[in-house]
């Protein structure tokens, strides 16, 4: 029987980072992954391939509609979808191969197959049993399956299928108005599809700061998205090669393809958690304490299988923290400083408290908002839609939340994350020099605006 100090189940962002960090800290480490390619959903069929397609489709649309304003004349623009999809696949391959190299470099033993507990500290993979002093469950998540949806994983499918449509659908119905639906909907809308988003709630991007989400809604509508909010989908099935979507109190919608992007569920199927003595909660998650310990000694869980946002970078933070907790006795993740980003155009990003959360909690706050339109770099880029919104405590001036819609918001939010992590105030941000001309100056101006002293508006 093989034995290890640390055994990680799952090689997604949380799992592979956990395994590498464990090896770096001197633990004899192994990782089990059922897929031949490492990186998990995020790298293989999630974050990375979707961002590759978002970038390609944005370049296509820009060449088609926007380059003239920069003095760049182009001829007839033609979509080469096979090349676009091939580029996406090459990016994924390069990164998955990179993780395999990092496993070898750090001497992380790799087992391919499905993990199944046979005891509290023992796991079976195929015909082989592995024993470990510490086991970390990082098995990720899977798409939610809605009642009444008849998946054929072609015409009606999930985000996985939407990454590889062989042709641009004339009409794509997206069920779900969250990050995944809007990102992949953006890809195909830019390439020529009519995109209809069906959302059960009366808003898109639930959980995001409403002022920012409402502005996104207006921009997306202007881009050509069709939204049907407060809409309940009762069924979807394939009829004569087309998708027919039934909605409550409305006419059926016929489309070429349907993308179901209505959230994700913890992926614990097949792990045989009962054999280890682990129970899941009503949402299918594994309960853990602040050090990611389950109720069974030596077994931990991180990432999408535990409570919290299902984000790759959240899982990575937990992957590092759990191992450092095992080796040093101390583990910590600041969940108030975990950003969220939608890689649409414009990008949308936020960290910390939303204005709605502060109102609900009765926290006195001040708000500073600065529009991208007033920023020189945004004008030079030709992307002036959006704003930076900063929320600070009315008494202490400490930054409580930052929310951005605009060009490169996903990169800009890093400064806000660092500010929250170090307990910075709006004054700290105001007094920090920002290079000119850059988009980051919007952050500084928003901090000034929180004191009603914005310089450039």
Describe the structure.
33% of the residues lie in helices and 24% in strands. It has 14 helices and 22 strands. Strand 4 and strand 5 form a beta hairpin. Helix 1 packs parallel to helix 9, helix 3 runs antiparallel to helix 4 and helix 3 runs parallel beside helix 6. The radius of gyration is 23 Å and the shape is globular. 47% of the residues are buried. The model has no long low-confidence stretch (mean pLDDT 97).
How would you summarize this macromolecular structure in one to three sentences?
The chain is of the alpha/beta class.
Question: Which architecture of the largest domain per CATH?
Answer: 3-Layer(bba) Sandwich
Overall CATH class of the largest domain: Alpha Beta
Number of helices: 14
Largest sheet: 7 strands, mixed
In CATH terms, the superfamily of the largest domain is FAD/NAD(P)-binding domain
Q: What is the terminal separation in angstroms?
A: 69 Å
Rg on CA atoms, Å: 23 Å
Structural class: alpha/beta
């Amino acid at each position: 029987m093989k034995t290890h100090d640390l055994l990680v189940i799952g090689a997604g962002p949380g799992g592979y980072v956990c395994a590498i960090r464990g090896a770096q800290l001197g633990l004899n480490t192994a990782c089990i992954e059922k897929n031949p390619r490492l990186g998990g959903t995020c790298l293989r069929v999630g974050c990375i391939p979707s961002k590759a397609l978002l970038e390609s489709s944005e370049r296509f649309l820009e060449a088609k509609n926007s380059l003239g304003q920069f003095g760049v004349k182009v001829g007839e623009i033609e979509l080469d979808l096979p090349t676009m999809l091939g580029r996406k696949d090459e990016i994924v391959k390069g990164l998955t191969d990179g993780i395999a190299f990092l496993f070898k470099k750090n001497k992380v033993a790799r087992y391919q197959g499905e993990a199944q507990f046979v005891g509290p500290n023992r796991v079976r993979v195929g015909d082989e049993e592995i024993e470990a002093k510490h086991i970390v469950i990082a098995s990720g998540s899977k798409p939610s399956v809605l009642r009444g949806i008849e998946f054929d994983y072609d015409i009606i499918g999930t985000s996985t299928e939407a990454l590889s449509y062989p042709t641009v659908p004339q009409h794509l119905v997206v069920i779900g108005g969250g990050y995944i639906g809007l990102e992949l909907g953006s890809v195909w809308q830019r390439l020529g599809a009519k995109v209809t988003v069906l959302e059960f709630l009366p808003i898109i991007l639930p959980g995001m700061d409403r002022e920012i989400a409402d502005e996104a809604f207006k921009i997306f509508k202007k881009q050509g998205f069709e939204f049907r909010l407060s809409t309940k989908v009762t069924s979807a099935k394939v009829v004569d090669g087309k998708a027919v979507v039934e909605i409550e109190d409305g006419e059926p919608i016929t489309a070429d393809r349907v993308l179901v992007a209505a959230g994700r569920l913890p992926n614990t199927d097949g792990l045989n958690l009962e054999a280890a003595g682990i129970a899941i909660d009503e949402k299918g998650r594994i309960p853990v304490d602040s050090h990611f310990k389950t109720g069974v000694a030596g077994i931990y869980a991180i990432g999408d299988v535990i409570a919290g946002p299902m984000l790759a970078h959240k899982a990575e933070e937990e992957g590092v923290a759990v191992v450092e907790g095992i080796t040093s006795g101390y583990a910590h993740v600041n969940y108030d400083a975990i950003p969220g980003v939608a890689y649409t155009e414009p990008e949308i990003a936020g960290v910390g408290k939303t204005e709605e959360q502060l109102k609900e909690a009765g926290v006195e706050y001040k708000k500073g908002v600065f529009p991208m339109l007033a920023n020189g770099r945004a004008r030079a880029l030709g992307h002036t839609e959006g704003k930076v919104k900063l929320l600070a405590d009315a008494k202490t001036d400490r930054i409580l939340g930052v929310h951005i819609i605009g060009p490169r918001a996903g990169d800009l939010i890093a400064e806000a994350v660092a500010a929250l992590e170090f307990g910075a105030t709006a004054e700290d941000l105001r007094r920090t020099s920002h290079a000119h001309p850059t988009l980051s100056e919007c952050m500084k101006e928003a901090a000034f605006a929180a004191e009603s002293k914005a310089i450039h508006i």
